[in-house]
Amino acid sequence: MFRAALLFLVVCLTALAPARAQDRDQATLKLLATLGENGAPVDSGVVWRIFDARTLPDGSRPVIIESALSHPVASLPPGDYIIHAAFGLASAMKSVTLLAGDSRSLTLPIAAGALRIAATRDNAPLDPASVQIAIYVPDRNDAEANLVYSKARLGETIGVPEGPYHIVSTYLDSVGVGALGGAKTANGANAPTPSNSIASGDVRVGAGKMVDVTLRHRFATLTLKLVKAAGGEALANSTFTVLTPGGDIVRELIGAFPSLVLAEGQYIVIARHDAKTFQATFDVKSGMDRDVEILAKETTAQEQ
Predict the structure, then answer these.
(1) Are 152 and 135 in contact (CB under 8 A)?
(2) Pick from 288, 246, 289: which is nearest to 266 by CA?
(3) Residues 125-128: contacts with CB within 8 Å, 24+ apart?
């Protein structure tokens, strides 16, 4: 029995020896990104890629490791590598040579600043899922000349090269009912629709600087009702067209009491029922969600 146990121990040690030798041959690389040469560490939003420095026949370089950790630690065989860090719209790259048994730390400065965007309604923060954020680089005569990022989310830290930016926040109407022509989700429900509540601002970002931006929305949720008398039952099979005072169509809806989100301001609504047309004007005040009744009183051509 003793000889059998000894033989088992020898086999185990023999099996472990190559793995231990392989571990000694590996190099360890700790990665850290900073905003500029002497800036603060970037603690979120960095995507790291480590490429083999050797090119393939098609000219590309294979990706050895990809990580979304802020401070990853990579174990690599000896060789030449290219380290790439992407931070939002900015990035940095550096070549390194690793030797067997190396344990190194690499700090990669990214020549960028950072944006952090918030959005509110009447000083109350909005849900990140309720807004759509776009970042533009303005031109001399056009604030929205160059769209550079359309997938920004509230609260995230977004790396950007130094310079001016124009930020646009569009509130998404996720509670609207009865909208015509809107997209549908997989289960057939109305998908969130961009409303006309749009807030924007201009900002300049300096290298190594974090800039916080708050965009303020002013809107309310309205429910439209075509009624024969004030406070009466809503008439089914009605259609509604909401317009600005200048005549631009904001939304078309159908149903007994469709709802929608509207930016603060004045609007005209045209209701149609049984081949008859009715019209009303109403005001929207931010935060004041309410019903808007349109009386089923026919308008003459002169009134229209």
Answers:
(1) yes
(2) 246
(3) 126/154, 126/171, 126/217, 128/153, 128/154, 128/155
Q: Is 207 helix (H, G, I), strand (E, B) or coil?
A: coil
Nearest-angstrom CA–CA distance, 263 and 284 = 7
DSSP letters for 210-266: EEEEEEEE-EEEEEEEEESSTT-PBPSS-EEEEE-TT--EEEEEESSS-EEEEESEE
pLDDT at 25: 82
Averaged pLDDT for residues 129-149: 92
Confidence of residue 108 (pLDDT cuts 50, 70, 90): very high
CA torsion, ordered 51, 53, 58, 64, to nearest 10 deg: -30
Answer for the pair 263, 244: CB distance below 8 angstroms, yes or no: no
DSSP 128: G
- Give the torsion sign (CA, 174, 271, 275, 231): positive
CB 219 within 8 A of CB 197: yes
Question: What are the distances in angstroms from CA 109 to CA 35, 137, 160, 272?
Answer: 6, 23, 13, 62
**Pairwise CA distance, residues 236 & 224, whole Å:** 12
What domains appear along the chain, each with residue ranges and CATH number?
Answer: 2-110 (2.60.40.2190), 113-217 (2.60.40.1120), 219-295 (2.60.40.10)
* H-only helix segments in the chain: 2-25
Among 8-17, 119-128, 171-180, which stretch is predicted with the lowest mean pLDDT?
Answer: 8-17
**Quick one: how far is CA 81 from the chain centroid?**
32
